[in-house]
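Entry 14. Ran structure prediction on the chain below.
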Amino acid sequence: MQASPYEDSRPFKFMVGKAKKEFFLHSALVASKSEVLGKMMNGPFIEGQQGYVTLPDEGASTIAAFVEFAFTGDYKITIALDTSPQFAQSIEYGFEAKTADAPVLDEGNMHVDFSEVFIAHAKVYIFADCYGVAGLLNLAMQKLHKALSEFRLSVRRMGSIVSLVSYCYERPCPGKLKKMVASYSAAIMDSQVTDVAACCFQKLLEDRGDFAAEMAWFMACRLRSSQDLMSHGRAHIIEPGAADLPTRRHMASCKKGRFHTAWKLNDIDDQAEQDEDVPREAWQ
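Output, structure tokens:
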């Protein structure tokens, strides 16, 4: 019987966040997913010598998502919403499994702040980008895209989008993630309730010139592509940077791998009396 590649793998301790929450993981498993972390554990660095890695800027839920992905190829976010027994407890997968104190989001909760959901996926994406975990990088982007696509907008819930934008633009963040957030914001501004959306975004647009510029670019792209490409079922998003508005040639030259999407958003309900929650499969 062939031995598991992890049988001889030593457990490696990860101390996460300001509280230094401990995760014990198979070093070989971690190295198979992240060359960067692999070198930290097995190379001539102090982390390898002392037998642990400190990740003060990461959250426990982000690392738990990474470890679950390493074991299963997928992850589910966990958001602390309630401490009542009706919420299931999440599990952190590692060399020594422990019970987490953050309950899983309940899809029946009508008072959910969905910014927690969106930002959780953004944090996973940023972690994967920082440590070169390609599969997790793509998965986190897909999950955030799906969650935003199926998010039911309302005036009451606009704050969730503003919080996501603020998180992505007020700290070092991969450009592709910023572009997705800006393109989604442009779709909101391009809806039939521009005044409502503009009011919610006003401070961000005033404070963050980079966000304002990118969102303006994407709005121009939507305007250009509305007749040319929406009839084909999707609108391509061109990356900001060119001096002129996108031409048909630009729109047609999108290469494989460049971010593109068509946001099909519902109109924002000013009354927000009949809000529905994002389907569970969208935020998992």
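Strands lie at 11-16, 21-26, 52-55, 89-92, 98-103. Will compare against last week's run tomorrow.
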